[in-house]
Amino acid sequence: MGVLKDELLKAIWHAFTALDLDHSGKVSKSQLKVLSHNLCTVLKVPHDPIALEEHFRDDDEGPVSNQGYMPYLNKFILEKVQDNFDKIEFNRMCWTLCVKKNLTKSPLLITEEDSFKVWVIFNFLSEDKYPLIIVPEEIEYLLKKLTEAMGGGWQQQQFEHYKVNFDDSKDGLSAWELIELIGTGQFSKGMDRQTVSMAISEVFNELILDVLKQGYMLKKGHKRKNWTERWFVLKPNIISYYVSEDLKDKKGDILLDENCCVESLPDKDGKKCLFLIKCFDKTFEISASDKKKKQEWIQAIHSTIHLLKLGSPPPHKEARQRRKELRKKLLAEQEELERQMKELQAANENKQQELEAVRKKLEEAASRAAEEEKKRLQTQVELQARFSTELEREKLIRQQMEEQVAQKSSELEQYLQRVRELEDMYLKLQEALEDERQARQDEETVRKLQARLLEEESSKRAELEKWHVEQQQTIQTTEAEKQELENQRVMKERALQEAMAQLEQLELERKQALEQYEGVKKKLEMATSKTKSWKDKVAQHEGLIRLIEPGSKNPHLITNWGPAAFTQAELEEREKNWKGKKGTE
């Protein structure tokens, strides 16, 4: 629901901005009433005509800002929206409010309908921040899709040249600048208006209407079993088929879910390139125009069912989300890099300040030395002037003073040499500080590497010690198990010997029992032979003599002397025998 709300807000933002005629950021309440009523109508939300007045009851009679209108918009409209409205009708209403104010008056290669589709695509690809813009990466993606739909080749070098001339003060293009860019034909040179319009419609169907694939195919009827050409449109959860590609006469839908499947069929009944779509309650036989189209449709439907099983959004929406996440990641990395550069710059400035302080100290020392030299020269001049009058009288003193002057000159030269050495030392100090900074970085890198190696070595040593302890325990366990197995083997050998003895005893008993069985069997055969001969004698006798046998479970005959010694079946058999004998006599 949050994604739907963000998409609706983009189109509403265009409409609100268009109503702000003086660019003050505010719109009158009367205009907002009309806008709110139209939004409720196209979004199929119950409209409360006095809700806006009650919401701003404590406000003045002046216009309402975007921030002031948002709470009302969220509470009374967007929170009540269901996914049962016509998105094209909603976008067209917002487009109607803003097109006259913003669309360029210069002639374009595309129609106003194509401009509307580009405007809707802009809202889909734009960033989720206001004012709405489309970044160069998304512009490149859209232009590539249009070029591919027109059957042309993508001119990457031309787009790179366009990005170089892109205004650095802007992060992207507005909707109207994007319409002007496409409408001027800068990236569609050599293409006619119809080709550009068809390319815009194809990209619009894919990105906005979620049309994954469309085209003419033959469909077999369920009742009359005839084949009819239909225009098929594949969406993320449904395949609709129409009489023609103008989508005016819809003939039916094929609802797709995770239980559906698509199968290739062999050619039959004069139809080629057949495949079958199996759904919960129906199956649909379809014939493509050629094998390539057949494979493309099978792959597209199979991919759609796979996405339904995974619960994933359509490919273009998932790709858009991945591109946004990648841009956020790159932006975060760039901000982190800028932060690190600022830290390095601050550290460099601190070093520069330290070096500037050292330089000032050296300059102060040189200034003091110059002042001292100046004073010394002034004192020398004064001494020369004072002693010139006494030159003849004090030649010896003059010679001594000349020696002192020569000595002072030598000291001055040494001092100046020292100043030059200090300047060289200052330059070397700068180089040494730079080398020290680099050495510290290298030392820190080596220290981290050593720490990681020590940690790995420690973990490996602990693992080896653990393996050693486990090996010792395993050896001890193996010795105990070996001793236990040896004891069990001895016990089993004893049990085997006892079992062998018992087996021999049982074999002897079996032979004895077999001999007894043979004797009993012979006696039984003799008794059976005798019994059989006796039965034959009794059967030939015509009297009422009958061997005593177990009684039958069937009902018995009753005679004057009690229960009969024979059954009804035996009686019938004997009657037949008597009748046969009488007939022979």
In the predicted model, the low-confidence regions spanning at least 5 consecutive residues are: 542-547
Number of continuous helical runs: 14
| Anisotropy-based shape | flat
User: What's the count of strands?
Assistant: 11
CA-to-CA gap between the ends?
112 Å
Structural class: alpha+beta
- The average pLDDT value, as a whole number, equals 83
Approximate helicity band: 55-70%
Largest sheet: 7 strands, antiparallel
Quickly list its features:
7-stranded antiparallel sheet; alpha+beta; two-stranded antiparallel ribbon; 14 helices; single chain; membrane; 9% strand; PH-domain like; 585 residues
Question: What can you tell me about this protein's structure?
Answer:
There is one protein chain. The chain is of the alpha+beta class and 585 residues long. Among the domains are: 1-208, no CATH class; 213-313, Roll (PH-domain like), CATH 2.30.29.30. The protein contains 14 helices and eleven strands. The protein has helices at residues 2-19, 29-42, 51-55, 66-76, 87-102, 112-125, 136-150, 156-164, 175-183, 193-207, 291-310, 315-388, 395-540, 568-584; strands at residues 26-27, 64-65, 213-220, 227-235, 238-242, 250-255, 261-265, 274-278, 283-287, 558-559, 562-563. Strand 7 and strand 8 form a beta hairpin. Helix 1 (2-19) packs parallel to helix 5 and helix 6 runs parallel beside helix 10. The chain starts with a helix and ends with a helix. Mean pLDDT is 83; it is low at 542-547. Residues 316-530 form a coiled coil. It comes from Phyllostomus discolor.
